[in-house]
Amino acid sequence: MTHRNWLTTGVVCAAIAFVVATGAFFHSQQLASADSRAMILAVDPQPLVAVTKSGERSFSIEIADTSAERAAGLMFREEMADDHGMLFVFEEVRDVGFWMKNTPMPLDLIFVGQDGKIRAIKQGEPQSEAMISPGEPVRFVLELKAGTAARGGIEDGDLLRHPAISTAPNADAD
């Protein structure tokens, strides 16, 4: 083989290797981003209002009311506004447990009875697989950016108002 043939063969092999490596890299990046994409739900037109001893606090919320939406929740979200949250709506009052796997930001988890009253507020640590539970059955869970409840004076026994809560079957019978 002549020097020119060796050079041509080398360039062709290098080009093929580059194309294969580049394709494999971008394919793996596509899979990684598809696996870790955050679920973003439409913001409900009605704000959720927390009625506290010191006044009312309003939040724009996304509503997770299907099992798929509740399972995904705020996973993979890197950030969220201080006045934004996600309301998890369950079909009935039940024991619930949440974890923070694949959730990179810390959260306040506010557990709410069927009557809209806050039963417990717990803190969620990023990426933790520890189960977070209120210790009693609830109908709703509101997730907010960590520290929002304390800064807003939101405490156990306070009331949350929103059409998703007030229109829940037996909302007065908790």
From TrEMBL:
Transmembrane segments: none
Domain of life: Bacteria
A Pfam family that the UniProt record links to this protein: DUF192
InterPro entries: DUF192 (IPR003795), Saro_0823-like_sf (IPR038695)
Gene3D superfamilies assigned to the protein according to its UniProt record, in alphabetical order: Protein of unknown function DUF192
PANTHER family: UPF0127 PROTEIN MJ1496
Protein name: DUF192 domain-containing protein
